[in-house]
Amino acid sequence: MMPSASDFEPFSAASSSTEDSHTTDSQMMRRCLELAQQASGQTAPNPLVGAVIVKNGQIVGEGFHPKAGQPHAEVFALRAAGEQAQGATVYVNLEPCSHYGRTPPCADALIAAGVARVVVGIVDPNPKVAGTGIQRLREAGIEVLVGVEAAACHELNEGFIHRMLYHRPFGILKYAMTLDGKIAASSGHSAWVTAPESRALVHRLRASCDAVIVGGNTVRRDNPLLTSHGQGNHDPMRVVMSRSLDLPDQAQLWQTAKVPTLVVTSTTASPTKRQGLEQQGVEVIALPELTPATVMHLLYERGFLSVLWECGGTLAAKAISDGAVQKILAFIAPKIIGGTDAPSPVNDLGFNRMTQALQLKNVRWRSIGPDLLIEGYLPTATELLE
């Protein structure tokens, strides 16, 4: 159930100074992001959007888009505000839509409500919108400010933006390794590389994604569950890439009563193994060419925004080489395991000189319990050519 206007604490925004106005705009945009995140992992193929309506220094309405097919954030906020929306300021982290989809245009709803000002985080990359919502508002005499907390708004919806620009889901490679770069001991034992705090963060990360991908080796070695473990309101679809279907007859991933599992294989895979999986409720799809790129295209057609790769080093290298990964999250534990044959997070990329190494962009790091999390973005194909 969406909140009503009576649920909000008054927000003191009364100030005539430009500095205070900018502060208020930033605070309200951050509130939009907080609202939007309540639907994390549940809106695909739609973006995460929150909206706040402020009048006379107080919040009079707010809302967020819960899932595709449901009203957009602005509609919920307008319903909560009622007549108080007239002459008010509306904050929304993504440009109000201007076209008819499953729901009517939000720009028209804001115009009809008589709002005086709209503050937008970022322009919608959807070609059906792409600035036309802002234009429509301005043509109606509404003041529009664009670009407040733009970086945070972009990061929240990087999956949606990537899908719109490149027609494939946004790929995130997550791995946990020791200080000497190992994801498991030489025996293959890997429980646990990182501390409970890091594992809890990974569970929340899964809850924000539409799918999580592993290879057959991970299923055989670790028998993972790959759910959010109650850390969010959503469990991603579990996807297994297996060319030959050389998979265990029994595995936690085949328990599909609550969380679906998709196995993607080749057209030459064993029909008997396929039947055995399907009898347990597992969906099996055979592709003529089984690669990270073809799997990502399949998930794009299903409307997915963000896909988490939690695979071993061999598949991770293929996913990177195939352009199926855009972001890296590396959890580093202050442990040393050693071992000449101990596996590393990314296998051969075909590079033989350090100058060929992929340099991450926009790198950030932070402590997670005793561990260190480093995150950054891989260069695009265009950037590699520059």
From TrEMBL:
Q: Which organism is it from?
A: Leptolyngbya sp. NK1-12
**What's the name of the protein?**
Riboflavin biosynthesis protein RibD
| Active-site residues, record numbering mapped to chain | E74
The reactions it catalyses are: 5-amino-6-(5-phospho-D-ribitylamino)uracil + NADP(+) = 5-amino-6-(5-phospho-D-ribosylamino)uracil + NADPH + H(+); 2,5-diamino-6-hydroxy-4-(5-phosphoribosylamino)-pyrimidine + H2O + H(+) = 5-amino-6-(5-phospho-D-ribosylamino)uracil + NH4(+)
Classification lineage = Bacteria, Bacillati, Cyanobacteriota, Cyanophyceae, Leptolyngbyales
Binding annotation for Zn(2+): H72, C97, C106
Q: Which GO molecular-function terms appear in the entry?
A: 5-amino-6-(5-phosphoribosylamino)uracil reductase activity; diaminohydroxyphosphoribosylaminopyrimidine deaminase activity; NADP binding; zinc ion binding
The UniProt entry, under PANTHER family, shows:
2,5-DIAMINO-6-RIBOSYLAMINO-4(3H)-PYRIMIDINONE 5'-PHOSPHATE REDUCTASE, DIHYDROFOLATE REDUCTASE FAMILY PROTEIN (AFU_ORTHOLOGUE AFUA_8G06820)
Q: What is its EC number?
A: 3.5.4.26, 1.1.1.193
What segment(s) does the record annotate as region Disordered? Answer: 1-26
